[in-house]
Amino acid sequence: MEWLLYIVFFLIVLFCIVFFLKKHYEDKAKNLASLKNGICPNCGAKSDKDESVIEYKLLNNGGCSGVSDVLYTCIKCDKSYFAQERISRPSCG
Ligand SMILES: [Zn+2]
């Protein structure tokens, strides 16, 4: 019956991996939504009408069909968030 133990162990490990990955992506999506609203997920600094606390930097232009690498940086606490986005451009058909 040793094989059953291995299968149970394997399933537990698999469940943990899926759980952590899911949480990781949920946190990432939550952070990104917050950053797009001008709020830092780390220190909670908020942008107002005149001044943005989130700096947006395009690292790598993915072109018309590709995905671009962008970096959001909070100017208050200096924390950076890396994200990959599809940026639509008027010049692309
Ligand atoms: Zn911050």
What can you see in these coordinates?
The protein is α+β, with helices and mostly antiparallel strands and 93 residues long. It has one helix and three strands. The chain is elongated. It has one domain. The longest helix has 35 residues. Helices cover 38% and strands 22% of the residues. Bound molecules: zinc ion. The site of zinc ion has 8 residues, from loops.
The overall pLDDT, averaged over residues, is 91
Spans with pLDDT under 50 lasting ≥5 residues?
none
Distance between the termini: 62 Å
> Structural class of the helix and strand makeup?
alpha+beta
Short descriptors:
binds zinc ion; three-stranded antiparallel β-sheet; alpha+beta; 93 residues
Compact overview of the structure:
With 93 residues, the chain is an alpha+beta fold. Helix content is 38%, strand content 22%. A hairpin with a 5-residue loop joins strand 2 and strand 3.
Present the secondary structure layout.
Layout: H1 2-36, E1 54-60, E2 68-74, E3 80-85
Antiparallel strand pairs: 1-2, 2-3
This protein binds zinc ion (ZN).
